[in-house]
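Q: What would this chain look like folded?
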Amino acid sequence: MTDPNYTNSSTPDYGYLQPVASKRLPFPLENTEEALITATGALDSVRRKLQHCKEYNGVNKDAAREKHISKMVYKINTIMKVLQALAIDLDDMYL
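A: My prediction, written as structure tokens:
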């Protein structure tokens, strides 16, 4: 770690990454990225639980139940792709 008093740099480097300023969004969209991240995390948690149930549930293992769980996993994957597309569109729109 270098001491900022001994360098000629106008911005001191303390040996760690400096925070990056967040981008400015229009008023109603200020916290939208955090909401998309939260929603994606929740959907991922549900998807993992469904996949675990499909793989390791020996009691209720019939073809109809597995097909129903597969449909739910497909729907969650589709929703997550839409959320990712929303995040990309939001990224392109920032001011």
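The chain has a mean pLDDT of 78.
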